[in-house]
């Protein structure tokens, strides 16, 4: 069972309570589990913001030029 499957079990509550802000908080996404693209797509589909507390370091785009 993936992390998103576990979170999806809570969706009926969001439909009942209709919160104005929904945030999916995780330690980090990873290529071994749920990757960033899949997590972001899930969040967009269900109206959540994705917050990673300890994201993997991404290459510095400004330093690449």
From TrEMBL:
- Record organism: Hemiprocne comata
Official protein name in the record? AAGAB protein
Organism's domain of life? Eukaryota
